[in-house]
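User: Structure please.
Assistant: Input sequence and predicted structure:
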Amino acid sequence: MDVKYPIGKLQVPETVTLNDIQKWLEDISTYTERLRNEVASLTDEELSKTYREGSWTVRQLVHHIADSQLNMYQRLKLALTDDNPKVPEFIQDEWAELPDSKLPIESSLKILEGINEHVIALGNSLTEKQLTRVFTHQVNGEISVGTKIAKLAWHEEHHLAHIKIALSK
């Protein structure tokens, strides 16, 4: 297994359908509970574990998941309301070093609960036409709403796998 990508890299169908969106939303709907089951009762020592040498700690991963999902959610809403908005890069390594990444993880679990509730409500209202709306990322180029929902779901599972690897050590 590739520890960097334990569930594989993001795979998005060439044409994203509303059925694809529903599958991803199902994963998102149970995510915070599954994450909480893994991390809620961890000690500081366990929260300091890493999944590979030089990687983020479990604590940093939980905070990163919330930070990243927040960024992706905002981009999703921008794509749905603006005409191909330009969005800046999310410099995740710098965000992971900011002081709030040392807070208790409960704050980020609460953020995730709210973001995921919003993503599900938004996702359930999408039309086929809206799936093709786009935003332009300053580094990665044009990204569609359908692809962003796929990444929201994949990203959570990707880091949950990292957390499970770290805790198994």
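The CA atoms of residues 67 and 74 lie 11 Å apart.
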